[in-house]
Q: What sequence folds into this?
């Protein structure tokens, strides 16, 4: 029994006729639905290379760009708080379709207007789509891949959703940069192109089988509360806070990087100016593949090392105005972000019972996406009165300390939980006697 990790316990499939057992179509259906998270994530970061154009054409300030980033997080938090858990009650497909509609409406808003108020509305709608999508897609893919999402199916689902999201986030700036170079109306055409792709992807969701039948009778509606598994509170919070800290790095650096490239490195190429953000997101996705065989605690300990080292490099290369070093720093920090987020999603999928999986995942994401609000706005406010270098060094010092502490503490909690699990047989829960 030794050597089993937090994610390793599995349970038999539910008996036929239970809500969680409806349609077990396996990997073919999972493959047909998995492209949607990556397209949705790509749409979320598509505006990144366009903010310089918004500055020129619409007069956006550094603070305006930061608020636009935070507006996306507000949309995510609203969706998670009001509806992130509803697929446990109403079925997975209906919530996936609602996420698709929100993203399409966001694209339409971007096409319709380019002023700050319109962009804020579009970003909130984009966040709503992501907030509906991620917990629902995680639960649906876990069920499509078998055995109620526990064991190998749950781990594969977590990996699929995380890699698809972070890979899509990395692709968004590249797509935006390419379209910016060839389009005649750079603040509208990129959203029109990806909007059409989102319409097609949303229509394809109609072909995805339902994996969880709607509850009968339906319980009364209640907003999402933090659905923390009572037997694993310490484990949940260690994962959630580490993921929140990692996302604060993601949002703050992405908001600041274009200004850093212009002021510190005198980069005037649109493609090169957005390369650090692409590396940040891309290495976050690649890190998942390189550490697929690692336990959750080992992955989270790796996140502490990569994030701490990456942020130290970010500060050092900014002070030295070393562009190649800055690109390496973005790649290292991005790897750490991906490891932290992957650890959090995988751990929560293992902890949550099928009937509460979407709600517990939504709770994790509520905490995670909070890292894109206050810290990112604080960075934007500092950037209004300080240089890009000063802002970045402050970010690396303050946020880096928080990240190393939270991810390191989380790794220790998870390691104890895994050691406890490996020493006793599984009970009815997928995690045997986790730390409480």
A:
């Amino acid at each position: 029994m030794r050597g089993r990790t937090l994610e390793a316990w599995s349970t038999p499939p539910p008996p036929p006729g239970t809500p969680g057992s409806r349609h077990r179509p396996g990997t073919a259906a999972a493959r047909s639905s998995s492209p949607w998270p990556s397209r949705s994530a790509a749409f979320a970061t598509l505006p990144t290379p366009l903010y310089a154009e918004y500055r020129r054409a619409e007069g956006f300030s550094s603070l305006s760009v930061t608020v636009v980033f935070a507006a996306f997080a507000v949309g995510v938090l609203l969706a998670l708080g009001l509806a992130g858990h509803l697929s446990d009650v109403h079925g997975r497909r209906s919530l996936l379709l609602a996420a698709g509609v929100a993203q399409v409406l966001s694209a339409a808003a971007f096409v319709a207007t380019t002023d700050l108020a319109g962009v804020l509305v579009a970003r909130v709608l984009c966040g709503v789509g992501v907030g509906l999508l991620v917990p629902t897609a995680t639960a649906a893919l876990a069920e499509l891949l078998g055995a109620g999402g526990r064991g190998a199916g749950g781990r594969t689902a977590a990996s699929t959703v995380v890699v698809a999201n972070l890979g899509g986030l990395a692709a968004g700036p590249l797509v935006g940069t390419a379209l910016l170079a060839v389009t005649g109306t750079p603040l509208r055409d990129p959203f029109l192109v990806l909007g059409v792709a989102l319409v097609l992807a949303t229509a394809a969701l109609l072909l995805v089988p339902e994996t969880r039948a709607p509850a009968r009778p339906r319980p009364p509606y209640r907003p999402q509360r933090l659905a923390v598994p009572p037997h694993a509170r310490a484990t949940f919070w260690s994962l959630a806070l580490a993921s929140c800290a990692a996302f604060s790095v993601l949002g703050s650096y992405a908001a600041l990087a274009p200004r850093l490239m212009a002021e510190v490195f005198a980069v005037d190429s649109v493609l090169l100016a957005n390369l650090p953000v692409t590396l940040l997101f891309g290495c976050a996705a690649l890190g998942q593949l390189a550490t697929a065989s690692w336990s959750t605690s080992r992955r989270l300990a790796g996140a502490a090392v990569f994030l701490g080292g990456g942020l130290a490099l970010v500060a050092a290369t900014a002070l030295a105005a070393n562009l190649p070093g800055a690109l390496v720093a973005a790649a290292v920090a991005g790897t750490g972000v991906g490891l932290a987020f992957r650890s959090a999603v995988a751990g929560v999928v293992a902890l949550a019972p099928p009937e509460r999986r979407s709600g517990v995942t939504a709770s994790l994401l509520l905490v995670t996406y909070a890292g894109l609000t206050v810290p990112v706005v604080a960075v934007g406010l500092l950037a209004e009165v300080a240089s890009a270098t000063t802002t970045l060094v402050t970010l690396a010092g303050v946020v880096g300390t928080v990240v190393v502490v939270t991810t390191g503490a989380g790794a220790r909690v998870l390691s104890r939980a895994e050691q406890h699990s490996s020493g006793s047989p599984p009970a009815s829960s997928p995690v045997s006697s986790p730390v409480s």
User: Anything to note?
Assistant: The domain at 20-214+226-422 is CATH 1.20.1250.20 (Growth Hormone; Chain: A;).
